[in-house]
UniProtKB/TrEMBL annotation:
Keyword Electron transport: no
MF term (GO), any: metallopeptidase activity
Protein name: Daptide biosynthesis intramembrane metalloprotease
Bilayer-spanning residue ranges: 128-150, 162-181, 193-215, 227-248, 255-276, 318-340, 347-371, 391-409
InterPro entries: Daptide_HExxH, MBTPS2
Keywords assigned by UniProt, alphabetized: Hydrolase, Membrane, Metalloprotease, Protease, Transmembrane, Transmembrane helix
The keyword Nucleotide-binding belongs to this UniProt entry's keyword annotation: no
């Protein structure tokens, strides 16, 4: 459609380059910014309602009225021209569903909070701040190494529930500091951070700070610095906690500081993973200077799969390394959720009905990701002209391979559980619905925040599991007087010096992977939610 008197849409903002070598950026409400060429940026800045000939005269060579008209038609298709094709955006929303795995609640504009110290942030020496943060990071690692015994106690022994709460509250606070590290660094380079808020990221609570204005920075190194600022800031806080712990005597206070330090270091390290939209990904995208790297790489990976499985031809538009990178981006979220489900399901099941529902939701979402990914691949193949017979055959082969894997792949049927030790003897504690066999070997352990320490061993005695109220500390690595529902069985041939409660690992014979999944996850969830028949 030809626009006689083109005018740029009033809801977009055209940013000129901040310095030589920087890019023109078009900012759109509730959408990713667009990087445009200098010619298109100048054209958009000029479109104020004049006709194409007048715009061409103002822009000068090589613009002509025909070129202006052609460019305006393409920009109109992108919704950047004020007209019938450019529906006015809805008012800016506070709650945004970015994707099924990312839900954001925008709280406040970060630039407003940083405005009082903007002059200081601009004048600060980037190198001085960086070297100070790196010194704290390294000093903290040295301090942790010097406190090996106390560190093992903090990570490998049950903690009071209050200590656990303090560690995670401290982690939440450092997450806020982490995000403002991004905003402060962008401000230092004369950029303006956007919204600050909280979000659910792959079912995990987190904070965020919008720094898309960083794409206006001229140097890739500056954009990398903005992306990495949060990781360095959080690691520096972790280092401070570890060094403070040197001066604290042993006890829960020292364990709290050491546990907090380690959790912060791990959180900062996780943010370096480039396969999801964390800081490591943003840094990589800035370094290679490819906008929307993850989306474009996953598109390349899907196209490669279509070529390998169905012979659909595709002309690659990105470097060859983006194909394996895209495949990792597709599979990594499923892997992360699977590991999280295996790690925390026994803890959640110990919480009763609510825990069972949470585990069911988690596994349901995992299944959705797998089915949705496979269905999207088959649908794209069908659109590319692949015949129905070949699609059915490929799906059958894939399902058969999965069935064979679940049937013939053997896994150890170890069951995570707990135990109690009192005047009545030693009893195994399992979530309701968990099935164990009399005579099975049991490792009795002292569970901690990060790992467990062996205390002794036992065997499961004969008798029927008794459903009763058990200490919450038998199923979780916390010291607390809270109780929950569980099933208990007597233990015999007990060896070792045991705590009143602790973790247990029931050793089982190898079984098919499918049976193992049903035995350890699906059936306990079913019994927890719907009850177990007597």
């Amino acid at each position: 459609m030809t626009v006689a008197a083109p005018r740029r849409a009033p809801w977009i903002t055209v940013h000129e380059p901040m310095a030589d070598g920087a890019h023109w950026i078009v900012e759109r409400p509730d959408a990713s910014p667009l990087r445009v060429s200098a010619d298109i940026g100048a054209l958009l800045s000029t479109l104020d309602g004049r006709d194409a000939a007048a715009v061409a005269r103002r822009l000068g060579v090589p613009w002509t009225a025909e070129l202006v008209t052609h460019a305006v038609e393409r920009l109109d298709g992108l919704g950047l021209i004020d007209g019938p094709n450019a529906a006015a955006p809805k008012p800016e929303r506070r709650f945004v569903v970015v994707s099924p795995t990312t839900w954001q609640l925008r709280v406040v504009k970060a630039d407003r909070l940083l405005a009082p110290i903007r002059p200081l942030l601009v004048r600060l020496s980037g190198n001085a701040v960086l070297f100070t943060a790196l010194a704290l990071l390294a000093g903290g690692l040295i301090a942790l190494a010097c406190q090996g015994s106390a560190l093992g106690q903090a990570l490998g022994s049950p903690l009071p529930l209050s200590t656990f709460a303090l560690i995670w509250a401290g982690l939440a606070a450092t997450t806020v500091i982490h995000e403002f590290g991004h905003g402060a660094t962008l401000t230092h380079f004369h950029g303006r951070p956007g919204w600050f808020g909280v979000m659910l990221f792959y079912l995990t609570p987190a904070c965020f700070c919008e720094v898309t204005d960083g794409w206006r920075l001229a140097k890739p190194s500056q954009r990398v610095s903005v992306a990495m600022a949060g990781v360095v800031t959080q690691a520096a806080v972790a280092g401070c906690a570890a060094m403070v712990a040197l001066a604290v005597p042993g006890g829960d206070g020292k364990s709290t500081l050491l546990g907090f330090s380690v959790v912060c270091y791990l959180s900062a390290s996780v943010n370096l993973i480039p396969f999801v939209k964390l800081d490591g990904y943003l840094a990589l995208m800035a370094y290679v200077d490819i906008p929307h790297l993850r989306d474009r790489s996953t598109a390349e990976a899907r196209a490669w799969l279509l070529w390998r499985l169905f012979g659909v031809q595709h002309v690659r538009s990105l470097p060859a390394w983006t194909v394996p990178f895209g495949l990792a981006c597709i599979g990594f979220p499923v892997l992360v959720l699977g590991i999280a489900a295996g790690r925390w399901s026994h803890v959640l099941l110990g919480m009763g009905l609510i825990g069972g529902v949470l585990v069911l939701v988690l596994f349901g979402y995992l299944g959705y990701l797998l089915v949705h990914g496979a269905w999207s691949l088959l649908r794209n193949a069908h659109r590319a002209g692949v015949g129905t017979a070949r699609l059915v055959l490929t799906a059958f082969v894939a399902l058969s391979a999965c069935g064979a894997l679940l049937t013939f792949l053997k896994v150890d049927n170890d069951i995570r559980a707990g135990y109690t030790h009192d005047s009545s003897g030693v009893h195994l504690v399992v979530p309701p619905g968990t099935e164990v066999t009399a005579g099975s070997h049991v490792e009795l352990e002292r569970g901690g925040l990060m790992f467990s320490t062996s205390l002794g061993s036992a065997r499961i005695g004969t008798g029927r599991a008794e459903r009763t109220t058990v200490p919450f500390s038998a199923l979780t690595p916390f010291r607390t007087g809270v109780t929950t529902e569980g099933s208990t069985l007597p233990l015999i041939d007990v060896t070792g010096r045991l705590d009143p409660t602790g973790a247990a690992r029931v050793q089982g014979a190898p079984m098919p992977a499918g049976t193992w999944l049903a035995h350890n996850y699906l059936l306990p969830v079913w019994h927890q939610i719907f009850g177990q028949e007597d």
